[in-house]
Specification:
By secondary structure, the protein is an alpha+beta fold. Helices cover 36% and strands 26% of the residues.
């Protein structure tokens, strides 16, 4: 009797319990868990990442944006080599941000229609 309790505690079938189950059948639950993780966690994350990269790649002058810090402004210029964006937050106040610091685009306007009050 103590051998059976010890065997149950170690999740091993007791000796003399009959034929051992097929090892491939034991792998089925693990494969199912991986498939569920892929379709419910990994794949949506990859789609979201691609959408974000597209959003950051499509930024143009005149777009109204919000940064991850909550700063609202209008894109005044884009430096492609350094991956930075110049954002106008007030009259005569421009701040340089990394493209990755942009959370979302509020409203897209066309082309170079940056309103300057001079």
């Amino acid at each position: 009797m103590p051998d059976t309790i010890l065997a149950l505690m170690l999740f091993a079938p007791p000796t003399g319990a009959g034929p051992e189950p097929n090892p491939f059948i034991q792998l089925v639950p693990l494969v199912l868990i991986f498939v569920v993780f892929y379709f419910f966690m990994i794949r949506p994350q990859q789609k979201k990442q691609k959408e974000r990269e597209k959003l950051l790649g499509d930024i143009k002058r005149g777009d109204k944006i919000v940064t991850i810090g909550g700063i609202h402004g209008t894109v005044a210029g884009i430096e492609t080599e350094k991956k930075t964006v110049l954002v106008q937050v007030a009259d005569n106040v421009k701040i340089k941000f990394e493209r990755s610091a942009i959370a979302n685009i509020e409203k897209q306007e066309t082309g170079d229609k940056l309103a300057s009050k001079e």
